[in-house]
Amino acid sequence: MDWLAVSDAEWTAILLSLRVATVAMICSLPFALVVAMLLARGRFWGKTLLNGLVHLPLILPPVVTGFLLLLLFGRRGPLGAFFADYFGLVFSFRWTGAALACAVMAFPLMVRSIRLSIEAVDRKLEDAATTLGASPVWVFATVTLPLIIPGIIAGMIIAFAKAMGEFGATITFVSNIPGETQTLSAAIYTFTQVPGGDAGAMRLTIISVIISMAALIFSELLATFAARRVAAQ
Amino acid sequence: MSLTVETRHQLGNFSLDAAFTSDGGVTALFGRSGSGKTSLINIIAGLLKPESGRVLLDGDVIADSDRRIFTPVHRRRFGYVFQEARLFPHLSVRRNLAYGRWFAGKSGWGSDFTRIVDMLGIGHLLERNPSALSGGERQRVAIGRALLAAPRLLLMDEPLAALDEARKAEILPYLERLRDDAGIPIVYVSHSVGEVARLARRVVVLENGRVTASGAAAEVLSAPAATLATGRREAGVLLEGEVEGTDPTHELTTVRVGRERLRIAGVSATAGSRLRLHIAARDVMLATTRPVEISALNVLEGRILTLTSDEDGSVDVRVNCGDATIAARITRFSRDALQLVPGRTVYAIIKSVAIDH
User: How would DSSP label each residue in B188-237?
Assistant: First the structure.
């Protein structure tokens, strides 16, 4: 059973992947909520354009997305320089860049899930809340938000899963640096590129399956719980 | 309290151009579906912004398109009871009821809560989820929720329309108590003559987005069929009387209308209380001699005032029976066979069970 022993380097890759996926999921949530709200409810010029832009990472080859990120958020890219100068936040060849790549790739999935749940909210309930004296912000906080919680949870889990599996955009944008940007997928890829790396690839594959299954079961549990709270009328 | 509403609004092919005033109590907006009742009440609530118009309550300008005033819905403090209860599915009944409290900013809330919960008989439902309530219970909770937001005006859009007869009968007494006890002016949308007859002080009749009649309930509801937008099926007269007493063995209540006495079935009213009766013209028979040995309990002697023919072969006959005028719809054939002319003495026969109250 020696081959099952996970080395330190592999642990690093696993923990890094978890960190990258979690940060990607949490940081993109507020943006996804706003964009989903705009797409579901907004009536403005350029809505189709926004919709297309959000879905772009889903359609483009991941390598292209990674390259575009490199152009925009690289150290000399317009946005990269801005974040580095004003926030001290560097993306290129850092784990933060991996998180950004994963967030961008998972964004359309999260927006889609939240948008569908917003569209399913009965707006008559929101009208009722308004007539009871709730301002639009309160209506959102006390009626809309509780009713879309299942959609938000589903969106977060699917974004997390997508981020765990992200490979193309990440490796293009931040490369494959052990301990900094080498995620689970990249580590498996590296193992398959060297002779005798099969055992290592197998170990990480098993761990990857376990994490994915755990996320799935967790999301099912949460969804059941949320659905029970928001029982249909 | 006074409410003034004037509005003009275009919705596709439908144009709404209506105005009415109310001085408190229950004002019924009455008309067929599609006559613009719901649009009008949504304009009062602020859920629909009309192209032009005004809403005034007690001298406060709530909305005025000329002066570019438009108070947002959540600052109007107009309670709204919708056709479907629209309870929040993620909150318990208690928290649904309490929803408006956050925004009403009113002291003495606890006593209001108890009083309103008692009045609506929903005390035993507080910890339940809306999905576990019957239709009638949901609607009562919705009424309580609107009242607990301490509204200045209560809007009700066919609150009983989605319910079956039994549930309607269950809620109507609560609405009467609400009208008599709460002291909040109510605008009540309905297409049911029975409900309007029972609740409203004033009636505004809408047809195709226009007001075709308005005034005191007894006048408007007793007007000849043609002015009533609901269709002639429900046309009739509205009488107001005083309950004299109840015969418990037969469950019959005697109501005095002027000098006449009417016996009606299935009412629970205490002696001395006022009661409104709606008698549909189609439920009234006429005879030229006093009928004997018939099951109908109310036979009123009177004189024919007018006869109005309709295109479909029916005739509306108005009969003055002392202090009450009764309308009867009969066929042209019967008119000719009985030789009915104004001034002739006839007997109006009304089945006790046919009277709406």
Answer: EEES-HHHHHHH-SEEEEEETTEEEEEEEHHHHHHS-GGG-TT-GGG-EE
CATH of the domain at A40: 1.10.3720.10
Using CA coordinates, name the residue in chain A closest to B78: A131
CATH of the domain at B61: 3.40.50.300
Mean pLDDT by runs of 10 across the 357 residues of chain B is 88 88 88 86 91 89 89 90 92 92 70 84 91 89 90 90 78 82 86 82 88 83 59 72 82 83 77 79 88 86 85 83 83 88 89 74
CB contacts < 8 A, A to B, total 76
Cβ–Cβ gap A132/B73 under 8 Å: no
- Please indicate, yes or no, whether residues B137 and B265 belong to a single structural domain of this protein: no
| CB B250, CB B295: distance < 8 Å | no
Q: How high is the ipTM of this complex?
A: 0.80
pTM of whole model > 0.90? no
* Residue A231 to residue B129, Cβ atoms within 8 A: yes
Domain count for chain A, please give it: 1
Q: How far is B78 from chain A (nearest CA, A)?
A: 6
When divided into structural domains, chain B yields a total of: 2
Instruction: Judge if B157 and B206 occupy the same domain.
Output: yes
Contact by Cβ (8 Å): B27, B201:
yes
Task: Identify the contact set of chain A against chain B, taking CB-CB distances under 8 A.
Answer: 122, 124-125, 127-136, 138-139, 142-143, 146-147, 229-233
Helix (H) or strand (E) holding B21: strand B14-22
Domain of B212 in residue numbering reads as: 3-232
Q: How far is CA B181 from CA B115, B173, B302, in A?
A: 11, 12, 38
